[in-house]
Design a protein that fits this description.
single chain, alpha/beta, 5-stranded antiparallel beta sheet, 9 helices, 11 strands, elongated
Amino acid sequence: MKDKKHICVIGLGEFGSELAVELSRQCEVLALDQDENRVNAVVDKVQRALILDVRDFTGLSSVVTADFDEVIVSIGEDLEASILCTLHLKKIGVRSIQAKAKTEDHATILRSVGATEVIFPERETARRVAAHIINPNLLDFVPLEADYRVMDVAPPDNFYGSSLADLELRKRFGVFVIAIRELVPPRFVFLPPPDFIIKPSDILVVIGREKDLMGVQHWKKPAGRQES
C-alpha cells in the first residue's frame, strides 16, 4: 500500500509549478514540461521533474502509468498539447485526470477526450478576490455542490462574548459552524458545543449557501441576547 498519493503535474507555467511544489509537501510528485528552464526551476522542489514533450504518446507512457492517483494537465496556451495529452492519459488508463481549460469550448473537448474534471484557475481566483472585496471578513472558501460553500470567517464584532447557541446561526440562516480555529492559544475545535463563546481571536469554519453565509456578516444580535 502506498503511503502517499502519486501525482503527476504536466505543464509548469505559473499555476502548474506552484501546484507541483505545494503538492510535493504531502505527495510524491512527478513534474513534466518540455521547457528545460521550467523544469530546472522546480527540480529541487519536487520528487521528480523531467523534460518531456507530452504530445508523444510513447514518451508520456514511459513515465506515466495507470498507477498514478491523479494527473493534472496544466497546459493552458497550447490547445493541441493539452488535448493530445489528455487523450493519451485516458489511453494509458489514468483514473483521475484534471485538465486546465481556457474556454468553455476547450473544456468541452477536454471532457470528451477523457478529462474527469476541468479546472479554470483564473476564474476561481477571480471569484475568491471578488468575494474578499465584497466581504473583508471572509478569509477563505471552498466551493461545494450548487451554491454551497465552506468558508473561513472572521466573526463580526457583535459576535464577541456570545455563545453559538445565543447566535442561533443555524436557525436564523440555515448555516452551520463545523469548527473553530482558535488563534490564542492555537487550537482547532471540531464541531464546537453550543455553549462555545466566540472571542476576537477565533475563526469560524462555516458551511451553508453562499448568500446565507454573506448575510451572517451583516446581522446584528437581537437586544437582550448578550452574555451576562
